[in-house]
């Protein structure tokens, strides 16, 4: 079976429609259909269940998808290794992450990486922590920025302990003048992104007895700042997210320290391509220099 069949199968599984897969691979939908039909005939069983809205994997399709992704990853690694042995420096790194990393870290990291590896392509995809980890696990991303804890099965490289702050209007002042206690926020409402209401953010709010009924949700970090500035509630944001956000607000640490642990996730070293390994080294060097 030609390698293109593997790529088509994995892309359709990810995109959920033949049309979207065709657009991603820059081929016609009929080419996608022909490839899948030939692959299914070769295997002896159907890979997808078709319907009017798209396709979904059969149980057999779900079982072979990880194997096909391993083959694709191995072939990519082989091609990159061969290119390096030929004196070339080619490849492609697919990076996933969340907004504050994209805003504050990634531009400098990518520029540094491109200076050292100008022939290596870069693509980026923003998503929630869980989305990024899942896309790395599925092989749709080579490396991703997320937060601990991470389920086993991937290589996890801790990067930075990002302190979590309470964001307040200018006229708000804690009773002790320095840190937020339970008494300070007993009757306050909080504004946060819904995807942030987990892990350490949830732990902080639960520790301070903030009920779900006292939480409003916003679209992004900038809108949180704007709503806090307008006196609509208090925000809760990590230090990295606050670095390039401006507004007439103050930030105070909680009396009990809370941190989110930012990490890098990738497949284990045997499955990493040379370009992925080089990117990981660039990230580690950047963090070491910055912090």
UniProtKB/TrEMBL annotation:
Record-level GO cellular component terms: cytosol
Superkingdom classification of source: Bacteria
PROSITE patterns per UniProt: HTH_LYSR
Domain HTH lysR-type intervals: 1-58
Any matching Pfam family: LysR_substrate
SUPFAM superfamilies in the cross-refs: Periplasmic binding protein-like II, Winged helix' DNA-binding domain
Name used for this protein in its record: Transcriptional regulator
């Amino acid at each position: 079976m030609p390698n293109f069949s593997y790529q088509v199968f994995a892309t359709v599984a990810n995109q959920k429609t033949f049309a979207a897969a065709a657009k991603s691979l820059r081929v016609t939908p009929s080419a996608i259909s022909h490839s899948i039909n030939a692959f299914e005939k070769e295997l002896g069983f159907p890979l997808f269940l078709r319907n009017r809205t798209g396709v979904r994997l059969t149980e057999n399709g779900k079982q072979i998808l990880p194997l096909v992704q391993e083959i694709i990853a191995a072939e990519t690694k082989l091609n990159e290794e061969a290119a390096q042995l030929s004196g070339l420096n080619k490849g492609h790194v697919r990076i996933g992450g969340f907004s504050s990393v994209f805003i504050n870290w990634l531009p400098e990291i990518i520029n540094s990486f491109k200076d050292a590896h100008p022939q290596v392509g870069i693509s980026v995809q923003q998503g929630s922590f869980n989305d990024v980890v899942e896309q790395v696990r599925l092989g749709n991303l080579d490396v991703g920025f997320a937060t601990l804890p991470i389920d086993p099965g991937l290589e996890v490289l801790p990067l930075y302990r990002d302190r979590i702050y309470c964001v307040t209007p200018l006229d708000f002042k804690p009773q002790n003048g320095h840190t937020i206690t339970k008494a300070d926020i007993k009757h306050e409402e909080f504004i946060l992104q819904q995807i942030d209401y987990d892990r350490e953010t949830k732990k902080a709010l639960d520790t301070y007895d903030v009920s779900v009924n006292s939480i409003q949700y916003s679209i992004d970090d900038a809108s949180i700042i704007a709503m806090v500035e307008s006196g609509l509630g208090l925000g809760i944001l990590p230090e990295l997210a606050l670095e390039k956000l401006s507004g007439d607000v103050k930030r105070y640490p909680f009396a009990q320290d809370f941190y989110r642990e930012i990490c890098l996730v990738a497949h284990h070293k045997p499955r990493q391509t040379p370009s992925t390994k080089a990117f990981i080294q660039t990230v580690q060097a950047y963090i070491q220099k910055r912090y």
